[in-house]
Amino acid sequence: MIPKGSQRGGGKDLATHLLNAFDNEYVEVAEVSGAIAPDLHGAFAEWEAIATGLTKCRNYLYSLSVNPDLGQGQLSRAQYMDYVDRVEKALGLEGQPRAIVYHIKDGREHCHVVWSRIDYQTEKAVHLAFDREKLMMVTRQFAREHGLELPEGYGPSRFDERRRQTSLYERAQERVTGISKQERAAQVTQAWAQSDTPKAFVRALEDLGYMLATGYRPYVLVDIYGGKNALPKLIDDRSVRTKDIREFLAKDFPPESLPTVDEAKALVAQHRKAREQFAKAQEDRKQDEALARAQAARREKVEAERAAMLARQEQEHERESLAREQLAARQGLRALYLAEVARVRQQRDEARPTGLAAFLGRVTGVSAIIHRVQRYKDAKRYLAFRETKQGLAAGQRDEAASLQHRHTLQALDMNREVKALAAVEARERKALAESRLRERRIVSRGENGHMPALAPGLKPRGRGAAVRRAKDRYRDRSGRDERVNPERVIQQQERAEERVMRAQIAQEEQRQAPEIDLTDAHREARERQHPWKKVDLAEEFAKAAADGTGGEGGGDDGAPAPRISRAERPSERARTKRRGRDDDFERER
């Protein structure tokens, strides 16, 4: 049983991850409490709004995943809830809003629990101190009571646990490439142990698919998939220190002569692009079609609910019926007022004095007083009617606004569900693409288990590194460069046959030709071009001694040699250069 908890924000992304139906065979939202919205996206949005309005907390969620050991059997829902309640009590999250989601992935059931850390009454976030230690304590107690065995590292002593833990970046690398952190470390450590020189070590790294670069640290490895790792962290040998690695590589590969991380990523991206395009063009699209059908069915269901809601609102005519009811209420109130006025008038007419009583009333002023009292009562009755009418109108306006607000909320809620569904679909497509990319890369590695080799040529400072060896091997084969042209194929075949025929004719002529001594042939050709004259050296020396002009003479007759001007004399430097080039050419031959 392995629990993993962390404080985080990004509720929308977390809800999309929890509802991803591609990576999980089964998704069940078991509980959403402490929120008005019944779905994860709405609930997490509410908790984010509360955190933004009441506090400055950014990591307003606490996410926990509970992964039981399949070898010891699945946990029941009651056991899951027991463990969740214990964790909730230990972390001080009792009474906080929470959501519980169950997943089944690769036949393994596990549980996700998300709490809101914001206490709206105190307007503060629940402080989570030593949450990992508390999780450890609860996990050990739960395992002891239920007879479960904990994996290595969850006992009382945890030696070198931090070094063995895998970070989020390393898990993302493993998800994309299919190579775990332990496999990378084992390969690089083996290359380090088997290399006696820096050049041999760098060459071994290139064969493993890594390019040596520099970044915030002097030596960083960039793999063919664009991931980067610090070189000392991949050498799993406690006797090797970072200082030793830097001293080992500093002479032949100083950091200033290496490409930067961004330059190395650009180079490996060019190297990787053609390989993945070729593999992508040949892969099967059945998974895409199946995912599209599943998403279409799910979207069709949501769209049907949306259309039914709109149709229900239109067919029920709630607004029209409410308007009619309100109009009838106002008309009824007015009718009651008019009826009361008519009754009062009739009563006054019946009680009005006549004859002598009427005359005495007018003379004494009693009639005037009675008339004023009646007018006062009429005005008071009218004011009461107007206030009642205004109150009724205000209530009716509130009812209409409430109805409009309810319809708007229903539409917004449905639109939010559609947007959340679009986000989930995008995450599922991304997961499918990552899965296929990981499968292609695993297949491309073959039996040796390491990445395709890189052979970068490291150039002097000021010039970037360039991949030389594989520039022609991994060219674009997505179909653009390999279109079959029948005429071109026929021409190539004819040219090949012609070359073979010419080679056969040349071999036959060489076989029939007589053997020639190249030395003799060269000497005869020179003699034909410049005939030599036979000279008797004894006779010539005697003639020169008798004349006494041997030092000034030249040629055969002892005549003085003509003087050559400096301008007509060939350049000695040019002659030396030409002789040097001829010597180089002879050596290369």
TrEMBL record:
Biased amino acid composition, Basic residues: 460-472
Coiled coil: 264-330
Composition bias type Basic and acidic residues, residue spans: 473-486, 508-542, 565-589
Ranges of compositional bias, category Gly residues: 548-557
Region called Disordered, residue ranges: 448-589
Coiled coil as UniProt keyword: yes
Superkingdom of origin: Bacteria
InterPro entries in UniProt: Endonuclease_MobA/VirD2 (IPR005094)
One Pfam short name: Relaxase
Domain MobA/VirD2-like nuclease: 27-148
Name the UniProt record assigns to this protein: MobA/VirD2-like nuclease domain-containing protein
